Each structure stands twice: as C-alpha cells, then as structure tokens.
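Purple acid phosphatase structure dump, as promised
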Amino acid sequence: MKLQLIFLAAAILTLISSGIGIEAGSSEEDYIRPKPRKALSFPWKPKHSSEPQQVHISLAGEKHMRITWITDDTSSPSIVEYGTSHGKYTSSSQGESTSYSYLMYSSGTIHHVVIGPLEDDTVYFYRCGGQDPEFQLKTPPSRFPVTFAVAGDLGQTEWTKTTLDHIGQCKYDLHLIPGDLSYADYQQHLWDSFGALVQPLASARAWMTTEGNHEKEKIFLLKSGFQAYNARWKMPYEESGSSSNLYYSFEVAGVHVIMLGSYTDYDEYSEQYAWLKEDLAKVDRERTPWLLVLLHAPWYNSNWAHQGEGNRMKASMEPLLYAAGVDILLAGHVHAYERSERVYNDILDPCGAVHITIGDGGNREGLAHWYRNPKPQWSIFREASFGHGELKIVNETHAFWSWHRNDDDEPVKSDQVWINSLVGNGCIVGKKHELRKILAVL
Ligand SMILES: *[C@@H]1O[C@H](CO)[C@@H](O)[C@H](O)[C@H]1NC(C)=O
Ligand SMILES: [Fe+2]
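structure tokens r here:
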C-alpha cells in the first residue's frame, strides 16, 4: 500500500513537471511509435547487507579507474583490493562513500574508490568492500587500435537486454553512453534495478556517461536535478578540471573525448562554455589525433522526434567545436539511428564533424519512426531500429564505424563506414589559426 502511494506520488510529480515544461518533449506527439518491449521485472533477492551491488567502473585520470558499488549497510568499508591474477590482491585503495534521499526513498551506501596506477590493456581481478565476489576488468590500451561500444537511451526493457547481450558479444575497450540511462523517472528503485542489469558489462569495461533529460528528475522547489545520476554515476570531472559531473573529458589511446551536458547552461557566458574552451586549448593532436564529443540532444537530426531541441546549444558551441576540429559527435535522445556527412552550420564541409545519433539502446518509450522529407543533404543513413554502435579507431587517420541493428535479435551490421580523421585529411593544420583566434576571445 505504501509502495503504491509512492508510485502514485511519483506519477503525479512526473505529470506536473512535464506540464510546466521542464522537458521539451512536445514534439513526441507528432509521431507514432511502435510497441515498445516489456519492461524487465526484477525479483527481489535478499542480500547480505554488505554485499557489493551494482558494480560499475569508469576512467579516472591517466592510468586510474574508479570503482563504484552500493551496499545496503552503512558500515561496509570503501575499499577495493586488486591484482593481475585471480584471487591474489597485491594492491588496495581506499575511497569515499555517499548516499542520498529522494522523497521517501533512501539510497544504499554508494562507494567510489579510485584504483591505480594500472597497466594498460591488462586484466585486473578485484573485489569491493573486502568481500567476495571477485570481479574482472580490462584497462584500455595506450595506443591504437581502440574500440568504443556506443549505445544511448538504454532503459531497462527486453530490448535493452538484447542490446546489452550484443555488446557483450563484441570485443571493445570501453563503453560510451550519450545519456538517458535508467529511465527511473523519479522512481528511485529503478536506478537500483538498472545498476543490477548493467553490472555484468559495466563492472568489466569502463562506462563513460553523460546526462540525458531522463537523468534530470527535477522537482519544482524541491529537487534541483541530477541527484541520483551525480551520486551514482560519478565521472572524472574533477580529474579533467570541470566543476560539474555534467560535463568533463578524458583521454584514451590517442583519442580525446569530451562529454558535454545538454541539460545545464551552455551559452557563451556559462561555466560549461568556459570549461570547454579551456579543455579544447589543452588538446594536443600529436598526442590525441582523434577528437570526439558526446552529448544527449542531437544537433543534426532529421527525425520528427525532438526536432530542433539541440539548436540553441548548437548555435552556442558548434563554432568552438568546428574551430577545434572535432572528428565525430555522438548524440542520443532520438530513439533511432542517423549518420551525417561531415557538416558545419548545416552545410557540407570536409572540415566539419560527422554527427551520429544513436539513441536506440532499447528504452520503454519505443522507436521514433517519422523522418522529415526531403532528406537533408547532410543525412547519409537514417533508420528507426534498436541497436548499438562500434567505433574502432585503427590508427591516427582511419576509424571504422558500424551500427548493429537488433534485427530478429541478431546483431546485424546495417551501416558501416570508414571515417578519415581531420588530422589525416589536412583540416587540422588549417584550423590552428582559427582555433587560436576563437580561444583568445573571452
Ligand atoms: C591506417 O589504417 C588504414 C586502414 O587499415 C590503412 O589503410 C592505413 O595505411 C593505415 N595508416 C597508417 C599510417 O598505418
Ligand atoms: Fe532523451
């Protein structure tokens, strides 16, 4: 009974907050989505109160990783023991813990422990809080090739499970998520079931996330937003000189990756904008020939879903990214797949970015089927199906991108393309002056 009341309260709050325009989702009325698949149900399993749950890992500065897990009790230590052979823990690190409450929900103890320095491209065995079970992770390589799995708008349905299974079958070094993780939407226990659902993959390879609109969970006058996301999915923002978990950057094997926030201020006078400039100034294309950006609401989208929602951010930040020579921008939000030609300011441009929308991880809202016609010149491939992407950066000039559609539950490769880097096609040399100019203006 009490539980039902909480659901009712959460449902009402959801209605109220969308009613007052917290989410710009009005265009969702314009198209009809096919049937989503069933939400997964999670049987309640009694656990020992200090047993580590929802283990996931992320990069935390050069040669370091952050291990995150949750325990029911508050006295379990925030300690990770690790080593390169099974059962032999030659190192250990101590970290911190946090927790939060949200209306009538209280989270477990959320532990964050940074381990390292770690060897590159190496399997480590580890355990959390001084107790079994043992987990395994692999650190990313320090040189090319490096492979990223990409899937946005995951949720926790049978489609999500299919997508995760397909990702689990591929060989990759880390996972990039352009926002919308659990679709908890105010029902905090769904963050816990999401954590349990992704643990098999997320405890083994770094999951690097940025926030989507479903992470916001803002309540007028009560909750300022992103409380669960920030507590549970702590990313290396401090390590990258950012003051917010909502945007940060990291480097891996010759790739500089910038995670931007579509749901925090991004105008020219914002902290995010100032941080982005500083971060771009630090990029050295000899050290990291590839420059990637992730964010949630796409800037190039010919689907009727969420049409134009990324426009303001694009107007503010696209000139910076263009001057810096961003190779590929990956977005989510629209529940479909779309890939663009290199483009800048809506015009084909060999020195612009390739834009990829990959918000098709499998959430309960279903697919976005309706596209604008005629197809814009920059749009090369668009399709409404669930799936995931893989980006294999082969060397400093070549990367192979493939989109794997969840067709008949088989991971069919239905779009694939070689992408040449801006370093390789000569654009970066030409952009140095432009970048200096734009970075100098404050
Ligand atoms: C980079 O990889 C591509 C694709 O495999 C290959 O054709 C090219 O020769 C490589 N370049 C260098 C410098 O190794
Ligand atoms: Fe979204």
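The first strand starts at residue 53 and ends at 59.
lmk if u need the other ones
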